[in-house]
């Protein structure tokens, strides 16, 4: 298997294509077409259909309805229409993109009730208004899948938007229990504890926990701008000078060596102008 | 160096060796295709059972990774998990029910499938062997490049009525055996698809006559959960957050 096929399969499995910029999407799509043209004999069945699925998503993102329709048809021809929940969520995605959310929800509600994947997809279609009903749906799903980090973090963010920071913290702690070395979640927990502290400044323990989680995040990842800048803010409030100095040194170092994304570098500038 | 003790008609190569090999290959291909066509589609696990297993797993995850939590949340979760594990709200079925008889309904399904598969394989194997025996019996086909003990004589020289012929001279049935052993790798090369060979190998393993694993002796879920709850009760708390600031300062300065 060539390197580029490997890369495309990784992109598919990690789902990172949903975060791509338009240029990246177009480029990946081109690469995918090339691979499917040239390497088709060298792919195993599983790899081939994985790539077709990636092609489905990419062309849908690019607005090429016809092409994604073809990819979907290939998959349906191979795996059948009514058995696979994975095909069902592909179909729902297609309906959502072409006919609107309501059509997709209707399609999914006809699926058998014990398909958790269809249920999850249906709930995710409701994510446009994050209200109490949405929270209940997510909780219902989590009762069956308590190890699903995606749902836990979605619930956490929803609680945060509903200003229910305590519960948001609980959700992200669940994520951290499942992925104990996830430094982004550590930094997120630091931010949430800090939010709690800002609401009630008499509770110093929240500030302490916030510092601890930020420190844990940078312990795991040495150039995590999010963690260091959190540490910078929180240690200033608590008066921990050693850590504060360390954080500002580290941020300066990251800025000088440009060892972060452009967004993060801009963020460092912003935080500097604040302090 | 003398004259070899037997001279084999070269036509045997074309009329016995090659046909058996080809028949074997075609037959394996056919069996593979039939196996794919008749294999049952995977069934989804019943939701209640799934929930029970996931709940248990999440308790185990807590037991393993509790050290990421602050003390307060640790204690909350500890009591929550113990409660959920002991009050039976996670259980898929009532623990007081009689354990399901594995010989009826659902339990039987899997076994039927397996039995069908085995039975089919056995018939196929027997048919193939009698085909070889019927058409190609009563003469020796080739000489093995390694010596064998006399005990193999009965099996490898089936139908050749010469008492003192060296065992290295074997009849066509042994070519059939040898070829079917090497079939997996041949299929791999021919079809460039690992899965095919693996499946064949599996079929061969099944023919070894191992009884399928039974679910009879599995411990009851409520007992497993109680044990898990006890484990969780006695965790002595420690946290990665203790002294993390100090560690960070030491790490980066």
Automatic annotation (TrEMBL), chain A:
Keywords: Endoplasmic reticulum, Membrane, TPR repeat. InterPro entries: EMC2-like, TPR-like_helical_dom_sf, TPR_rpt. It is found in: Endoplasmic reticulum membrane. The keyword Membrane applies. Its main location: endoplasmic reticulum. SMART domains: TPR (SM00028). TPR repeats lie at residues 149-182. GO terms for cellular component: EMC complex. It is a peripheral membrane protein. It comes from the Eukaryota. The keyword Membrane applies. Part of the endoplasmic reticulum membrane protein complex (EMC) that enables the energy-independent insertion into endoplasmic reticulum membranes of newly synthesized membrane proteins. Belongs to the EMC2 family. Component of the ER membrane protein complex (EMC). This is ER membrane protein complex subunit 2. It comes from Cyberlindnera jadinii (strain ATCC 18201 / CBS 1600 / BCRC 20928 / JCM 3617 / NBRC 0987 / NRRL Y-1542) (Torula yeast). The lineage of its organism: Eukaryota, Fungi, Dikarya, Ascomycota, Saccharomycotina.
UniProtKB/TrEMBL annotation, chain B:
The chain crosses the membrane at residues 12-30, 122-142, 173-191. Pfam families: EMC3_TMCO1 (PF01956). It is found in: Endoplasmic reticulum membrane; Membrane. GO terms for biological process: protein folding in endoplasmic reticulum. Keywords: Membrane, Transmembrane, Transmembrane helix. InterPro entries: EMC3, EMC3/TMCO1. One of its GO terms (cellular component) is EMC complex. It comes from the Eukaryota. It is a multi-pass membrane protein. Belongs to the EMC3 family. The EMC seems to be required for efficient folding of proteins in the endoplasmic reticulum (ER). This is ER membrane protein complex subunit 3.
